[in-house]
Each structure stands twice: as structure tokens, then as C-alpha cells.
Amino acid sequence: MVQDSKSRNQHDVREKSILSQMKNQTKPKQACSSRQRVSELVANHKFQRIELVVLRRYPRRLVNSENFTGSLAAACGRDETGIVGIVLWADQVKQVKTGDIIRIENGWCRSRNGELVVSTGKTGRLTVLDR
Phi, psi (5° rounding) for residue 62? Predict the structure, then answer.
């Protein structure tokens, strides 16, 4: 029990450190490229840029539909304002791991079962900032 508490405490300290680093980053001068926060996301709208800590990545599955054929995985991430679902497509599935800090640019936000979910869609870009 003490060990679980200790490892949980270490995880909390790491997460707080990562989130504080994200808060303290200098903001770009251009308003259009400023980082959006989870609390500012709106369902069925695009966003310019969001940075998240990946809390969990679920197992991949194969999809074969009219719009997409390939690997797909769900994940969840957070910033200093909240938690959001993440959809990972194709190569992103292998690229993103639990604990990574990621940036999604030119992505979209949807509502699924009452929860917000973000993704790059077809035109966006995902970058792993830190492991």
C-alpha cells in the first residue's frame, strides 16, 4: 500500500511538472497560432493548436470503411484545464505512447457520447513534443 501511494505520488508530481512547463511556455506572437485549451474546445469545430499529456492509449484496431482503411486507436489526454479524448490514425497509433506530450495542429473536435474528442482528421498534423 505504501508503494502504491509512493508511485502514485511520483506520477502526480511528474504530471504537475509537465503541466506547469506547458503553462510557462512563451506564447507565440501571432494570435492565430496560440495554443487552445481543453476548456475552450467546442464540439463540431476546428481548432488551430492544442497540446496534451497522453494519459492512456487504448489498443489499436483495424478499420475498413468508405472513408478510412487502416489502424485506429483511442486515447485520452489532458492539459491544465481538463481531459479530452483523442483519436489516433494510421502511423499516429505507433507514434504516440502513454506519458507523451503531443501537439495537434489544424485538428477538429467532436462530441461522442457526450464527451469531447479531438483528432487531426485528414488535414491536421500530430507532433510528439516530449516522451
Answer: -95, 135
* Domain that residue 92 falls in: 2-130
CATH of the domain at 30: 2.40.50.140
Q: Write the DSSP assignment of 42-86 as a string of letters.
A: -TTEEEEEEEEEEEEEPPPEEEE-SS-EEEEEEEEEEETTEEEEE
User: How, if at all, do strands 82-89 and 115-119 pair?
Assistant: parallel
Query: Rounded to whole angstroms, what are the CA distances from 118 to 37, 100, 105?
Result: 12, 16, 11
Q: Give the span between the Cα atoms of 108 and 99, in whole angstroms.
A: 22
Q: For residue range 44-76, list pLDDT tens digits in order.
A: 999 999 999 999 999 999 999 898 889 999 999
Residue that the C-alpha cell 497522453 belongs to: 54
- How many domains does the structure of the chain reveal? 1
Q: pLDDT per residue over 7-30, tens digit each?
A: 556 556 556 556 665 555 544 444
One-letter identity of residue 83: I
For the record, the C-alpha cell of 124 comes out as 491536421
